[in-house]
Protein: ThuA-like domain-containing protein
Organism: Lutibacter oceani
Amino acid sequence: MKKIILTICILIVTFSELYAQKNINVAVFSKTAGFRHESIETGIAHFKKWAKTSNWDIVFSEETSFFSDENLAFTDVLVFLSTTGDILDESSKKAIKKYINKGGGFVGIHSASDTEYNWPWYYQMIGAQFKSHPKIQQATLHVNHTSKHPSIKHFNTTFKVVDEWYNFNAPVLSHVNVLMSLDENSYDGGTMNNKHPIAWYHFYDGGRVFYTGMGHTNDIFDNPLYEKHIIEAVNWASGTTN
């Protein structure tokens, strides 16, 4: 009996280790129908690097046809990397919605909020819609450490960085959980009455959704704090961290 119990314990540990070592399947989509950020190529290069160190199996696409039930069945996290404009057709929208409904993860970076303005479901998922931005400049961000989200644990209470800071068409939707907010007194051109979330997460329609407004410049991808911000966001969206 003791041998049987020991064998069962060994099998449980073995299966647990195999599960823990399972790679995360990440799909990075960067199609644009409006402004195209130069930093997309920089972001792709960094995602390739992060995949090697983070146990991700990664694919890249700018083809709307990528969004099929078959492809998304093998996707743990879908990343919209500075997408812009209307980039999806009805078939791809249906596939993405089904993917989220089944528990898929989504990470939106920078101009993912400047995407699909005419799709109400996407607006509710992404949490805000881009309106305008001032010149690229340094700003101070306040980090909401009452949230234990892994994407911000490594930040101090405040964080200063140079990037392009989005103003949104309306207040960020109230059903998201704010992770970082801009201090509009620290830079020129904020229009959100100092109620200016810039990174957030929520559980939406069955899936895990994360968005950060940072990601316009090439340089920010080399910032180790930002790198960890994105890596931990992807891991969270996959469901492997809480």
Observations:
- The chain has six helices and eleven strands.
